[in-house]
Specification:
With about 260 residues, this protein is mainly alpha-helical. It is about 65% helix and about 5% strand. It has nine helices and two strands; from the N terminus they run ααααββααααα.
Length: about 260
Amino acid sequence: MIDPLTARVDRTGPIAPRSALAKLAAALLIALPLVLTIDVVSASVALLLEIPLLLLAGLRPREFWLRTAVLWVAAPLSAVTIALYGATSGTVHFEWLVMRVSDGSLALAAATAVRVLAIGLPAVVLFVTVDPTDLADDLAQRLRLPARFVIGALAGMRMLGLLADDWRALALARRARGVADEGRVRRAFGMAFALFVLAIRRGSSLATAMEARGFGGGGERSWARRSIWDRRDTALVSVAAVIPAAAITVAVATGAWNFILGPTA
């Protein structure tokens, strides 16, 4: 449900109300160690351990599948590509022109597919539950990033949603004037230019408004919302750190570890 006053989506999952910075840190902690290896064991263990996080994020089933649809398409497509054109080793099962399917390419394809899901799913699910305003507050108050840059980026992100409305309004205006029935390519370029000019004007107005509110000053700013970090945020980051650690430990113990910069990659 969307709050009409704040434009925020109310979610009931225990991870949803956590700090935006904690979610960002959790996604990075899960992804970065898994980038170092391409093996099906570490990716599978990580994906299995991520299931509770995905279930507790507060996304409804329909929203989850819609948000992650691109990953479910990209994973098998990347596996097919690696299987056909990956490094050849072991028994060759199929060969035609530059395509060659072998034991090595199939193992690499399976590892790649699971790795895409293990890295992508928690990143997408955690970022979906992040409100841009909360993220801006955390970046400015906790990481001490420049307030002018953070608030400007937040305002820009908020205005991105207006582009679709502006495009629709331009299309309706041109149709009302009878100039939208032919020359679609030329009309698209004209609308794009008009949208570009409108974006520049809106950005100039935003910059003027920010300067009028003292964003160009060098003093310390006050904040309407206080960034809060509690034990549950620390617990989320700790759990996110345990997932890749356990996955890599199992991969090393079973001999499946395949460092991408090493000689076995």
